[in-house]
């Protein structure tokens, strides 16, 4: 864990944040390596999509929580585009709807996914922890917690290429969510990063920004820990949670 002993320049702060992603972003998790490498069964991919839905539907809730701490109308107007990206607006169905279509294409019933009845308890806890963090954090720190978007395009590219290449049950329409995020995430992070670099001026502020990014990478990592323990090894699926027909680690081709 990084502990500052001096104020960083804005560029030094950005480099420090980039280093956290290189070390701790969840594209490094063993579960994602299996997912992108085509080593999971259909049931295991279903479990991932189902549990990830909890995080997807929580994103606009998180953004509303951040906006509740924002007294500036201009900033609120800029930030709410993120909410539209996920909830949808006008002719854009939104990211949550695209994720639900991915789940349906994998063979999951929409109502079951939306109910979140079969989701792992650890998944719900991780997402709730993140939303509550954003609800109570100062605006600067809420913005900083979203900076995992710095690293998101890489993982989306890996998912698109890996899932299309390695699973015969995945087609182009099923990766629509990830293709949209290839343009949305860089736009979003440009604003958040500029804000953080401009407003984190003291050691305490910069340390809080760094700690917020550590927290967020931990939230994402914890969700994959839960998936790995439940659906890969040792296969400890909690009572009442989604149980796929097949959970062994094998390429579904």
UniProtKB/TrEMBL annotation:
Domain Thiaminase-2/PQQC residue range list: 15-225
Gene3D superfamilies: Heme oxygenase-like (1.20.910.10)
Keywords from the UniProt entry: Oxidoreductase, PQQ biosynthesis
Pathway: Cofactor biosynthesis; pyrroloquinoline quinone biosynthesis
Transmembrane segments: none
Alphabetical GO biological process terms: pyrroloquinoline quinone biosynthetic process
Entry EC number(s): 1.3.3.11
GO molecular function ontology, one term from the record: pyrroloquinoline-quinone synthase activity
Source species, domain of life: Bacteria
Enzymatic reactions: 6-(2-amino-2-carboxyethyl)-7,8-dioxo-1,2,3,4,7,8-hexahydroquinoline-2,4-dicarboxylate + 3 O2 = pyrroloquinoline quinone + 2 H2O2 + 2 H2O + H(+)
Described function: Ring cyclization and eight-electron oxidation of 3a-(2-amino-2-carboxyethyl)-4,5-dioxo-4,5,6,7,8,9-hexahydroquinoline-7,9-dicarboxylic-acid to PQQ.
Family designation: Belongs to the PqqC family.
UniProt-listed NCBIfam families: PQQ_syn_pqqC (TIGR02111)
Full protein name: Pyrroloquinoline-quinone synthase
Species assigned in the record: Terasakiella brassicae
């Amino acid at each position: 864990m990084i502990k500052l002993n001096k104020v960083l320049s804005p560029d030094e702060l950005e480099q420090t944040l980039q280093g956290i992603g290189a070390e701790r972003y969840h594209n490094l998790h063993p579960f994602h390596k299996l997912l992108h490498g085509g080593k999971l069964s259909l049931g295991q991919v279903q479990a991932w999509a189902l549990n990830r839905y909890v995080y997807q539907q929580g994103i606009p809730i998180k953004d509303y929580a951040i906006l509740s701490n924002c007294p500036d109308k201009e900033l609120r107007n800029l930030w709410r585009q993120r909410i539209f990206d996920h909830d949808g607006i006008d002719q854009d169905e939104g990211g949550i709807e695209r994720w639900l279509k991915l789940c349906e294409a994998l063979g999951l019933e929409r109502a079951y996914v939306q109910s979140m009845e079969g989701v792992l308890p650890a998944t719900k806890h991780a997402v709730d922890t993140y939303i509550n963090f954003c609800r109570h954090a100062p605006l600067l720190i809420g913005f900083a917690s979203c900076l995992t978007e710095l690293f998101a395009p890489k993982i989306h590219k890996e998912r698109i290429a890996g899932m299309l290449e390695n699973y015969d049950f995945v087609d182009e329409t099923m990766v629509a969510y990830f293709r949209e995020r290839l343009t949305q995430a860089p736009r979003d992070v440009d604003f958040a990063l500029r804000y953080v670099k401009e407003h984190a001026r003291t050691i305490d502020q910069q340390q809080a920004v760094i700690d917020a990014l550590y927290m967020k990478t931990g939230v994402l990592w914890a969700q994959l820990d839960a998936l790995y323990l439940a659906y890969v090894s040792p296969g400890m699926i909690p009572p009442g949670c989604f149980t796929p027909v097949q959970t062994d680690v094998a390429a579904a081709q």
